[in-house]
Design brief:
Blueprint lengths: L1 E2 L4 E2 L2 E2 L2 H4 L2 E2 L5 E3 L2 E3 L10 E8 L3 H14 L6 E8 L18 E9 L5 H19 L3 E4 L8 H12 L1 E2 L5 E8 L4 H18 L5 E8 H8 L8 H8 L3 E7 L12 H13 L2 H32 L8 H28 L8 H4 L4 E9 L1 E4 L2 E4 L6
Parallel strand pairs: 1-14, 7-8, 7-10, 8-9, 12-14
Antiparallel strand pairs: 2-3, 4-5, 5-6, 6-11, 9-15, 10-13, 12-13, 16-17
Helix pairs in contact: 2-4, 3-6, 9-10
Length: about 375
């Protein structure tokens, strides 16, 4: 993963020399075949589909929509919103998303048959947008939360990063959380999760759902089976090109999160599932090392006992034997886990793009921006998602 144009890898600043970036007189930089331009007045405008899963957060979503409209007011980009109703128990307010908006051209709601959870609601929305991509004319998908924690003004930075790329196949752009606004307890737990994630997968993580997917990457994203479990981890695990832009995560606009600690733990485990092969191999290697160390320890203890007069504490051999038995059991479990993972590679996986329709109850438009023309008021020509 790279970082734009203030790029860094593993939270360290990139340098031109160490990462092969070359500058030119125009102030541009090249990295892995991409040209990263400095600020320019010739950046192209985009028609962007904004995807936000919603579970009862209609008040917060209303404020986020207003924030997006304000944030993009000075830009030439246009927005079409798709809200995924993840089985909300509260009805959509009658006056929800009625505008008027300046940059939002259309708002639609994709209703799911039941509550699937944030990640699967997001996956269903991405698959729906991928199917409608040709008719809507969208050029990128902005993925963000509807509770206000993803700042609409930071979304502008993601779009600017994409439009500053001179590339026929630009990468997916993630918002890297350079600062968080959660409680101390949550942040301590999150740091512990990051450490465990690094130990088991060998990869750091400081990403969430907040991201921008270019149109050319959408098909690859929605055909990845692990998308149904965890959006960000599925992209990292599939090795799709991606880059990051530093952002600040805000507090919720209103209300409280419906995610409890159980849901957060399941969310973290879902990320691990995207690296199951890597985790299986790492556990096998770690257990093999422990087994080898135990065998060496027991052999050394027996050798000292039989071949020397060196006094050994009582029960040391028994303790070593117990540790050996435990290590053998861990090794057996790790081996069984790894073999099961390998055998599952030939199984038919869940395909989000193919199977998501079974969970969709329907889609309906709830807002279309009107524009004034010389002949009267007409609806915007840009398609709603």
């Amino acid at each position: 993963m790279t970082r734009l144009p203030f790029l860094r890898r593993d939270s360290r600043r990139l340098s031109e020399k160490s990462h092969g970036m070359k500058g030119n007189r125009a102030g541009n930089f090249s990295k892995n075949g991409l040209v990263l331009r400095g600020k320019t007045s010739h950046q192209r405008s985009l028609h962007i589909a904004v995807l936000m899963p919603v579970f009862n957060d209609w008040t917060a979503a209303q404020e986020v929509l207003a924030g997006l409209d304000s944030a993009f007011a000075a830009k030439d980009d246009t927005l079409a919103i798709l809200l995924v109703d993840d089985g909300s128990t509260e009805a959509t307010p009658a006056d929800f998303a009625q505008g008027p908006y300046r940059k939002i051209e259309a708002i639609s709601i994709l209703k799911l048959k039941k509550n699937l959870g944030h990640q699967r609601a997001l996956a269903a929305g991405l698959c729906h947008l991928a199917e409608k991509a040709e008719t809507t004319g969208m050029e990128a998908v902005l993925v963000m939360d509807a509770d206000g924690q993803d700042d609409p003004w930071e979304a502008v930075k993601l779009v600017d990063a994409l439009t500053s790329l001179d590339a026929t196949a630009p990468p997916i752009i993630f918002a890297e959380r350079s600062r968080r606004s959660e409680s101390v307890v949550f942040q301590l737990g999150y740091q512990g999760y990051r450490l465990l994630h690094f130990v088991l997968t060998g990869r750091g993580i400081n990403l969430g759902n907040f991201s921008l997917i270019p149109r050319n990457r959408l098909d690859a994203v929605t055909t990845e089976p692990m998308l149904w479990n965890h959006y960000a981890a599925s992209i990292m695990g599939s090795k799709l090109p991606s880059t990051t832009v530093p952002t600040t995560r805000k507090s919720r606009v209103t209300g409280k999160s419906s995610l409890g600690y159980v849901s957060l733990i399941i969310h973290g485990l879902s990320a691990f599932s995207c690296y199951k092969e890597i985790i299986g191999v790492r556990l096998l290697v770690i257990s093999s090392i422990l087994l080898l160390v135990s065998l060496i320890g027991i052999a050394a203890a027996i050798g000292l006992r039989l071949c020397t007069s060196f006094p050994l504490p009582g029960g040391i051999v028994l303790l070593a034997a117990i540790l050996l038995v435990l290590t053998v059991q861990i090794f057996a479990l790790a081996s069984n886990f790894t073999m099961q993972i390998i055998s599952m590679r030939s199984a038919q996986p869940f395909q989000p793009r193919r199977d998501y329709v079974w969970y969709v109850d329907g889609a309906r438009p709830c807002y279309t921006r009107k524009t004034e023309t010389g002949t009267g008021t007409v609806f915007s020509k840009s398609g709603a998602p």
